[in-house]
Amino acid sequence: MAREAGKFGAVGGVAFAVDLLIFNLLLNAGSETLTAKTCSTIVATTLAFAGNRFWTWRHGDHTHLARQYTTFFVLNAIGLGIALACLAISHYGLGQIWPALQSPLADNIAGQLVGTAAGTIFRFWSYRKFVFRATVVPAEVPRTGSVTSPSPGPQ
What we know:
Blueprint: H1 2-28, H2 33-56, H3 65-93, H4 104-131
Helix pairs in contact: 1-2, 1-4, 2-3, 3-4
Protein name: Polysaccharide synthesis protein GtrA
Keywords: Membrane, Transmembrane, Transmembrane helix
Subcellular location: Membrane
């Protein structure tokens, strides 16, 4: 599991960098905060799916690509919801009380650091459990009638 977590972290690190770059480019271009985060996450998710499918869990069950891709994106949407909730609480909720929380720095901390960290914990668990399941080879079960107890010798 440590090896999987390491690979997952490497793929996630690249996806995070792409997410961060696109998010800030869109913010600087005048996009609305939640729209910018949604767009950056969609691009990063596509990259993360490819990295996780073909590297992190390449030995997993890959029989239904369309179902796997859809499940990945549904679970990632939940992870996005976690990040958006952190961002919305900071920017729109607490930002009404403390205007400094409506700055690009505060948005990056809430959405990119706190939200992504919380979403990543959920993603690792859910991808491993529902998307990239390990192929299970059933253990051989001894037959009940084939084992005989040794008979006592001649008496």
